[in-house]
Amino acid sequence: MEDIILWLKYLFLGFVQGATEPIPVSSSGHLIIAQKLLGLKQNGLSFEILTNTASLIAICFIFRKDIGRLITGFVQFILTRKEEYKSDFMFSLYIIIGTMPSVIVALFFKDQIEEIFSSVHTVSIALLVTGVALWLIRNLRGRKQDGDLKAKDAVIVGLAQAVALIPGISRSGATVISSIAVGMKQETALRFSFMLYIPISLGGLVMGASDIASDPNRAQLAIPYLIAFITTLIVTYFSMRWFMGIMAKGNLKYFSYYCFVAGILLLIFM
């Protein structure tokens, strides 16, 4: 019976991760809250890395055509210098530029950030900040498409992604908000945001591989971790598809309402 309860708890954690990773409400913040409610304490980064990897697989599958086109365009432009590949080359280059701030901050400050800010109180404040930002850009409709981006746009969005290393600040929210703020169209903002997610998540997987290998609870929690992984994979796919529809309609204001309500309730009750 205890095993079944534990499996259900990890299924719930997988659902929370999958549902919140693509949308601008902070998956890390919601996992902190969910673990506190369930009385679970994760030692090390194994669980976070596994569930993030599941979300990464789902998002890569959804954007597989974009990923293939960008890789092809990047390589072909280097080899041929043909103008037809330049837009994809520059977009790929801006993804690399936008990834750099998060890489630098993660390498030097990630442990300190998580130690200082991994509390429910911090998550509640961060959710309120996210809500305000979503509200401010709710009516913006940019014109920049993939070929119109500049290096400064990539730097600004990259810095926003670095700020999202603070638990409670949504990564997708920070990057989508900043992308729209610098004038990107909804579709371009969504694509650029999640293209930035892929290299930073891959880097986290590589850097955290040793945590998984050395996890003392690996054998004991193999089944719960597998349940969480599969749940995260499936739920992320459908959550991402749903969010793409929301972005197409420009209805980000509803997420600001959620962040306000969730942040206030956390401040009051937790």
UniProtKB/TrEMBL annotation:
Keywords recorded for this protein, A-Z: Antibiotic resistance, Cell membrane, Cell shape, Cell wall biogenesis/degradation, Hydrolase, Membrane, Peptidoglycan synthesis, Transmembrane, Transmembrane helix
Organism phylogeny: Bacteria, Bacillati, Bacillota, Bacilli, Bacillales
UniProt keyword Cell wall biogenesis/degradation present: yes
Function of the protein: Catalyzes the dephosphorylation of undecaprenyl diphosphate (UPP). Confers resistance to bacitracin.
HAMAP family tied to this protein: Undec_diphosphatase
Reactions listed under catalytic activity: di-trans,octa-cis-undecaprenyl diphosphate + H2O = di-trans,octa-cis-undecaprenyl phosphate + phosphate + H(+)
Protein name (database record): Undecaprenyl-diphosphatase
EC category name: hydrolase
